[in-house]
Amino acid sequence: MVGPDETGGCGCTGDTQRAERDPRYRRALWLVVVLNLGFGVIEAVGGFVANSQALKADSLDFLGDGSITLVGLLALAWSARARARVALIQGLFLAVLGFGVIGFAAWRALHAVPPEADLMGGIGVAALLVNVAAALVLSRFRAGDANVRAIWLFSRNDALANVAVIAAAGLVAWTGSAWPDIAVAAVIALLFLHSAQEIITGARSELREIGSGA
Questions:
Q1: 3-state SS assignment for residue 121
Q2: How far is residue 59's CA from residue 45's CA, in Å, rounded to a whole number?
Q3: pTM for this predicted structure
Q4: What pLDDT score was predicted for residue 99?
Q5: Residue 158: which residues within 8 A CB-CB, separation 6 or more?
Q6: Do residues 200 and 91 make contact, with C-beta atoms less than 8 angstroms apart?
Q7: Domains, in order of start, for the chain
Q8: CA 207 → CA 9, 62, 67, 69, distances in Å?
Q9: In the chain, where does DSSP find H-type helix?
Q10: What is the spatial distance between Cα 143 and Cα 60, in angstroms, rounded to a whole number?
Q11: Mean of the pLDDT values across residues 9-36?
């Protein structure tokens, strides 16, 4: 059975049982929430200003990670069933956002206009620094159980996505084409959908097992 510390099965909320008894870990998760949600909003605005699909997609990743972790923290006193239901709703919402990014990227491919490469690259560097900071905050907890390690790995993998955004900005500046930006946006959206699928699958599995009394 998926335990109460495995909201959604993706590990992106961390270990809620550990958060209940370890104030240092709980503070670390709150800091990650602030970093993710705060910069997610900044990057979304920057994505529209720079006309960059990759930045918009990456901002959704920030907002998704931050909101899932926030709910995980707020739901510490909730029942396992309530947390699983919330995770299912979050997974479905994230999937809708991911499909929306892919659809808009496809539309942009038909009306390709290169983004502002300098602004795109600058925001990409800032996003990388934020994710590195989050990974460093969580690094002391990465040796814990699967969920503790998973949340650290998510921050590390997000930093790799930021490197792809920075590379895309360089290619846009070099080629004068919008295609590197669109390609990176599509890849990030697919990774986003993969995370949503993990959350939905884990939440449904937990709900079934709770219902069966396993």
A1: helix
A2: 9
A3: 0.72
A4: 84
A5: 61, 62, 65, 131, 134
A6: yes
A7: 9-212 (1.20.1510)
A8: 11, 27, 21, 19
A9: 16-21, 23-50, 53-74, 80-110, 117-139, 146-175, 179-212
A10: 28
A11: 69
Residue 46: other Cβ atoms inside 10 A: 23
In the numeric block, the tokens 């990388």 are attached to 128
181 and 168 in contact (C-beta within 8 Å)? yes
Q: Is the pLDDT of residue 32 over 90?
A: no
pLDDT in tens, 134-145: 878 877 766 554
- Which residue stretches of 75-144 are H helix? 80-110, 117-139
Task: Answer yes or no: is pLDDT of 108 > 50.
Answer: yes
What local confidence, expressed as pLDDT, does residue 152 receive?
60
CA distance 140 to 204: 31
The CA dihedral of 13, 19, 20, 26, to the nearest 10 degrees, is: -110
Structure tokens at 190: 């697919």
Supply angle C-alpha 97, 132, 35, rounded to 5.
55
Nearest to 32 by CA among 72, 71, 83, 70: 70
